[in-house]
Design goal:
Blueprint: H1 2-29, H2 46-57, H3 66-89, H4 102-132, H5 149-165, H6 169-194, H7 198-202, H8 204-235
Helix pairs in contact: 1-2, 1-3, 3-4, 4-5, 4-6, 6-8
InterPro entries: MCP_dom_sf (IPR023395), MCP_transmembrane (IPR018108), Mito_Carrier_Antiporter (IPR051508)
Main location: mitochondrion
Solcar repeats: 1-90, 100-193
């Protein structure tokens, strides 16, 4: 059940987070393989990026890649969260008193995150390529011309075979190692620490909320450099339909 609930929760959250993911992807691809100051700046910040996307691609432009993104989050997090919770429930991550052992939690978080990243890698690549597609006047990075998830799978498989669907997987697994270990380990320790205070002991939902925020902050900080590399690996071209970002 932990595998199912973890996947469904992440899939539902992706509907609300996908617009921000689109903006993040566009900003990360901006200036790809260009020297500083030698490329056009289409997206100045997250608010300006949102304005530019809506202006040129409409409101639906903010939800590009939603289909594969939802499936990717479902697959990746069902494996990641389900595996971690199974290890925790069976006492592999705690001491004799039931307290989380940071080293065990950190290692398990990293491995579970890498496993989830591996299984979700093809969908992550397709999501990235769909999100990067834009009107010619604001296009950044390689423009693959994808029309949908199934078309992308067929095209990648026919051109590069099964291995092509996992291109860039290594970068994504490193990204997941950094992000997942930081998130789950900091979440578990924060939750235990906060539970020692009467307010958080009385309101466990509040405890989980604050611990989740702390975990998310650690995840973002630790994962960001690897996320940038991962996005660029997934979106790199194969010598056709190249669109310069300047």
């Amino acid at each position: 059940m932990d595998f199912v609930t973890g996947g469904l929760a992440a899939a539902g959250a992706s509907i609300f987070s996908n617009p921000l993911d689109v903006l993040k992807t566009r900003m990360q691809l901006q200036g790809e393989l260009r020297a500083r100051g030698q490329h056009a700046v289409y997206y100045k910040n997250v608010f300006h990026a949102a304005y530019v996307v809506v202006k040129h691609d409409g409101l639906t432009g903010l939800q590009k890649g939603l289909g594969p993104a939802t499936l990717m989050h479902c697959v990746r997090n069902s494996v990641r969260l389900g595996s971690y919770q199974w290890l925790h429930n069976n006492g592999y991550l705690t001491d004799k008193e039931g307290k989380t052992v940071f080293v065990y939690s950190f290692a398990a978080s990293a491995l579970c995150g890498a496993a989830g990243a591996f299984f979700g890698s093809p969908l992550f690549m397709i999501k990235t390529q769909l999100q990067s597609q834009a009107s010619k006047t604001i296009a950044v990075g390689f423009q693959h011309g994808r029309t949908g998830t199934l078309q992308a799978v067929r095209d990648i498989y026919n051109t590069h075979g099964v291995r092509g669907l996992w291109r860039g997987c290594g970068g994504n697994m490193v990204r997941a190692l950094a992000g997942s270990s930081a998130q789950l380990a900091s979440f578990a320790k924060s939750k235990e620490y906060l539970a020692e205070y009467p307010l958080f002991a009385k309101y466990p939902v509040l405890n989980s909320l604050i611990a989740s925020i702390i975990g998310g902050l650690f995840q973002t900080i630790c994962m960001q450099p690897f996320d940038l590399v991962s996005v660029r690996l997934y979106n790199q071209g194969s010598g056709r339909k190249f669109c310069k970002s300047s």
